[in-house]
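Help wanted!
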Amino acid sequence: MLADRLGYLLKHAQSAFAERSAAALAPLGLTGRELAVLTVLGGSEALAQQQAASRLGVDRTTMVALVDALEAKGLVRRGPDPVDRRRNLVHLTERGRELLDEGSRIHAEAERTFLAALTADEVSQLKSLLRRALEVR
Amino acid sequence: MLADRLGYLLKHAQSAFAERSAAALAPLGLTGRELAVLTVLGGSEALAQQQAASRLGVDRTTMVALVDALEAKGLVRRGPDPVDRRRNLVHLTERGRELLDEGSRIHAEAERTFLAALTADEVSQLKSLLRRALEVR
DNA sequence: GCTGATCGTCAGTGATACTGACTATCTGTG
DNA sequence: CACAGATAGTCAGTATCACTGACGATCAGC
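Answered by r_m:
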């Protein structure tokens, strides 16, 4: 049975949610990936591109284009790392933090509607199961 | 927190599992997508390409290349549909059914090792939650 | 002060999926 | 029966995405 196969379920859940989330974020001019970068950068201190990339699980060459796009929109700015000049520290701008807040709100809302068939308990169960499956590797 | 975001969890679970499953299937000369096609075709009667595509959730133009590859490997064969000559009915060959059986075994095994951190109950819980989230749309 | 490693960047590549157009065929209407 | 519109499979072109390999700049250890 196809619908019992993990690969099928994950792939379709992922793509369906990505589509819904992209549509919800479009009015902000943000993609889901860009919001994810803002989220990573929203922590206490600025990160080098590579650090941001590894937290996000993307390649450092992919991060270049993501930061390019965000910088072009004025949401982040690259700055030199005083202690290691190979690195760019990426900071959120004020506008970047605004969009991060607004985007997070929208993302949470998209999650709720996507998982409308599940109770709040089941949602956290689902996330916890996925997290545990991922943590092992 | 990034690891709480559904999109992040789904994307990484999907790609990690796809990678593992592809590696496990490689000795058979099959990709995960090809095995999925064989699975869909493994039902009681032959399907037209479009029917197979919609059950799999892929585009009909994508199915063309998938069937091309499987036919080149001798695992399926295209035949005319006697009642609608626009359609190709796609049948499993004997070898195709052998590889479907072997591939299903390997896929199940890959699923078990991928979800090794979860109990059997939790695995079916996870699948059932994903299935319910998908069924709504 | 050298050697090897790391960071950001860029060009090129491969996989994936889609759109649009085309042919052949079917279906329904008159 | 004839014709219009819809559908199946195919193909070319395009967009996205992520990766590899290379490069210059910089760092760290001996």
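OP: Thanks! One thing I noticed: The interface with chain A takes residues 2-14, 16-18, 21, 32, 36, 39-40, 55-57, 107, 111, 114-118, 122, 125-127, 129-137 of chain B (CB under 8 Å).
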